[in-house]
Amino acid sequence: MFINLRSLSLGEWYLSNNLSLYVCFLRHSPLLEKLNLKLKLDCEKDEQMIQTTRGISFAAEHLEKVTIYCTEGDARVPVLVNILRANASSLDRIDVKTY
């Protein structure tokens, strides 16, 4: 567990269409307040990504701000936003920035 972790930035090779990687970090960082996700540029679209979102749950009670960096039209963004909104009750803001 990352008990004292308050801010986390994940990018490039850590992030793929496998949403369980994101969820694993969130589940094991109970005090996380700020999250930056830099989505990999060359990730292929994956239909299984949407199917794997069923049953995803975690408690991100302290998460206040998320920034997602991605290419325009990245299909993972709406899926991630929905997961975050459903599981982070304290989340005030999600910013999406394209590159």
Short descriptors:
99 residues, alpha/beta, globular, four-stranded parallel β-sheet, 3 helices
Explain what this protein looks like in three dimensions:
The protein is of the alpha/beta class and 99 residues long. It has one domain (7-98). It has 3 helices and 4 strands. Strands 1-2-3-4 form a 4-stranded parallel β-sheet, with no helix packed on it. It is globular, with a radius of gyration of 13 Å. The N and C termini lie far apart (32 Å). The model has no long low-confidence stretch (mean pLDDT 84).
What does the secondary structure layout of this molecule look like, with pairings?
Elements (H helix, E strand, L loop, with lengths): L6 E5 L7 H9 L6 E5 L8 H5 L13 E6 L5 H12 L5 E6 L1
Parallel strand pairs: 1-2, 2-3, 3-4
Short note summarizing the structure:
This protein is an alpha/beta fold and 99 residues long. Helix content is 26%, strand content 22%.
Secondary structure class reads: alpha/beta
Number of helices: 3
Unreliable stretches, pLDDT < 50, 5 or more residues? none
How widely separated are the two ends? Answer: 32 Å
Pattern of helices and strands: EHEHEHE
**Major sheet attributes:** 4 strands, parallel
Q: Tell me, rounded to a whole number, the average pLDDT.
A: 84
Number of strands: 4
Beta-strand percentage range: 15-25%
Protein name: FBD domain-containing protein
InterPro entries: F-box_SCFL_complex_component (IPR053197)
